[in-house]
Design goal:
alpha+beta, Aminopeptidase, 7-stranded mixed sheet, 7 helices
């Protein structure tokens, strides 16, 4: 099995399906409890993702391996040009094998396809592998976000991805076809 999951082509990325609602909550609880704590705003989003994300023109993506949900991430709408990449997690045994990369690529491609100008995120200094992944995918660290106002107790590093960059657009158009 290790051999199969080394190749990121074995991961399939899909958009939100109601039957995966509990898996979305479970995966996020797992990483939040490992590194932080579940805060009221986490609970609100994770308990009703349709109302808090989907119905507000946001998106939730799932990474599947052999039809098993092994990762997820969310695009939260802040306004017509700014979305937040949030609730990104991959089951520990699948980390470092490409699922996170494919989730980010799908989120960026979706944002590009609907005319988003910037994707913001915040992460923690504790999550070095995540910071490295975001950086490799083109996110840049900024001192403070004027779009995101973190209500979380956990330390935050703000990052953004500029979809106005023409070079990035050309690369992402190719991803939309894949």
């Amino acid at each position: 099995m290790e051999r199969q999951i080394k190749n990121h082509k074995n991961f399939k990325i899909i958009e939100y399906r109601p039957e995966y609602k509990e898996k979305y909550k479970e995966l996020n609880y797992e990483w939040l409890e490992k590194y932080f704590e579940i805060e009221p705003s986490d609970e609100k989003i994770l308990s009703d993702p349709e109302k808090e994300i989907i119905d507000k023109n946001g998106f939730i993506f799932f990474a599947l391996f052999k039809e098993e949900v092994i990762g997820t991430c969310t695009l939260v709408k802040h306004d017509d040009t700014n979305y937040e990449l949030s609730k990104m997690c991959v089951v520990e045994k699948y980390q470092g094998k490409g699922a996170g990369k494919k989730l980010i690529e799908k989120a960026i491609s979706k944002a590009l396809s609907i005319g988003v100008k910037r994707i913001f995120l915040y992460t923690s200094k504790k999550l070095t592998p995540a910071i490295n992944l975001y950086t490799k995918k083109g996110f840049k660290i900024i001192s403070k976000s004027t779009i995101l106002n973190s209500s979380y107790k956990r330390d935050s590093i703000y990052m953004f991805y500029d979809l106005n960059n023409d070079c990035d657009k050309d690369k992402l158009k190719l991803l939309l076809v894949l």
